[in-house]
Structures are given as C-alpha cells and as structure tokens.
Amino acid sequence: MRMRLMLLGGGNALGQALIRLGAEEDIGFLAPRPPQAGWDAASLTQLLDDTRPDALINLAYYFDWFQAEEVSEARLAVQEHSVGRLAELCQHHEIRLLQPSSYRVFDGGRATAYSEKDDPAPLDSRGQSLWRAEQSVRATCPRHVLLRFGWLLDESPEGRLGRFLARAEHEQTLSLADDRRGNPTPVDDAARVILAVLKQLDCQAPLWGTYHYGGHEATTSLALGQAILSEARQLRADLAEEVVAQAHAARPDAGHEPQHAVLACKKILHTFGIKPRAWRAGLPSLLDRYYRHV
C-alpha cells in the first residue's frame, strides 16, 4: 500500500476488524487516539494539519451511527458538523475520504432492494443526520467514497447483537419482526470491503461516489435472530427457548427502524469486483469474540 492511511475510530469494533485484517496483509494505519470528548471540528483541523495522510477512513462515530439504540439530536449535530469540517480538510489537503453511511437514509417504504439511485427519505434524526453528512461530503470533497452498509453486527456488548443476546439470557421467549428485512453484515466482512476499496484507490483508480454493501442473502429480523441463537447455543446453553413472530408495526422501534432495509449491491460488484459474502458464515467468529468479551 503506497498511500498513508489514517483511521479515525480504530478503537471500535469495525476499526479493530479493519486493523486486524490490514495486519494480515501488512497494511498499517495511523490510528490516533481521540480527544477525551471525542473528535470535533477543532481537533480534526489540528490533526490533519499535522499529519496529512493520503487517505482517511472515518469511523469516528461508528457506534452511534450503527450500534447505539438511540443517540441524542445534540450529539448527532456535533458529529454532523465534524463530518462537514472533515470533508473541507480532506479537500484542502487533497486527502481521499472514505465515509461510512447506512440503510437508515431510506424510509423502508418499498419492498424491493434500494439502489444508489433511489432517493433517501430518512425516518428519524439519526437517518437525517447521516443523509446531511453524505450531502456535505459530496458537495465539499469530490474525491470521496461513501459506503452505505446494511445491518452491521459486531461483538460490542451494548451493540445490536449484544442487546439481543442479553435479552436472550433473561427472557424465555423473544419477539422479532417477521416482516422486516435487511442485509446482516458482520464487521469482519465490512472491514474486508473497506480494505478492498482502499486497495483500488491506492492504484489511483478514480472510483468516487456512493456504494451499497450488505451481506449475501437478505433476511428478516426473525430469521436472523433464530440463526444467531442457534449458533450461540454452541457456546451458551441458557438462552431463550423460543423466538416468535411479531409485526414490524407492533415493534417499539417501528417509528425509526426502516421496515425494508435491503440494499442492492450490484454497483460495488461491477465497479470494485467486491462480491457479497454470506452473513451466516461470519456468525461463529463474531459470537466467539462476543462471549470472550462479556
């Protein structure tokens, strides 16, 4: 890798997965420790003025954007402002910017898979903030790659997977929507995709724009929960015995979680040659890490 790579958010689950995968291929990252209050516009300005990498992967707000159950609007506003400043700095210093985003920019109102050409219409403040951050990057920093991910799964105890497994330890019956669909995506697979994109950017390929990625085989949250429990029982016996179907509209998060969140991944395949991997294959190692951490 000829580019000097900077990774913001090297301490979170996706950042760690990216560092692990890079190390296997002798690809290293500058991964600065964030200020105590987290990265903001001022600290990012100082950082990039001092370091000037060739490419920057912004996972600084990964947990809030992809794993947290809820995030305050004030917190999102600070993060959104910081992304705007980051885009300005990357343009000024001629740094390539890889910025993650999410299926949450769509409202989930259509049953067919969302492509990059579909118009976003976010349901809640998090989706709206992500959409505005995307627009800011597009308008300010032409040399960018925006990667929208499906249902990201990681080993963090407070994340999407961790909350589900914690419930499974304390409740005998779990309810999950059988009419809510998406692409489960283990963080190791997401890291693979990011690294593959970086390799092609390292070859000076001007493949800027917005791309979708999610694990192979779209599924319902009910089927995902059943698959996770089936695998988790190899490691823990005392888990919920039954998962029952519930309508999306009856779920407590129906107001801010898109019902249909399946992403079409043809563009990233045709442009970068990145093939979706089966999400089920990633569950054993993911659950092994989770249970080693809790």
Task: Please give a structural write-up.
- The chain has 294 residues and is α/β, with parallel strands linked by helices.
- It has a domain at 5-156 and 184-217 and 263-277: NAD(P)-binding Rossmann-like Domain (Rossmann fold).
- Helix content is 41%, strand content 16%.
- It has ten helices and twelve strands.
- It has helices at residues 13-24, 41-51, 62-66, 73-93, 125-140, 160-170, 187-202, 221-232, 266-272, 283-293, and strands spanning 5-8, 55-58, 96-102, 144-149, 151-153, 173-177, 181-182, 184-186, 209-213, 219-220, 242-246, 260-261.
- The strands form four sheets. Strands 1-2-3-4-9 form a five-stranded parallel sheet, with helices on both faces. Strands 10-7-12 form a three-stranded mixed sheet. It has a two-stranded parallel ribbon with strand order 5-8.
- Helix 5 links the parallel strand 3 (96-102) and strand 4.
- Helix 1 (13-24) crosses helix 7 (187-202) and helix 4 (73-93) packs parallel to helix 5 (125-140).
- The longest helix is centred in the N-terminal third of the chain and has 21 residues, at 73-93.
- It is globular, with a radius of gyration of 19 Å.
- The relative contact order is 0.15.
- The mean pLDDT is 95.
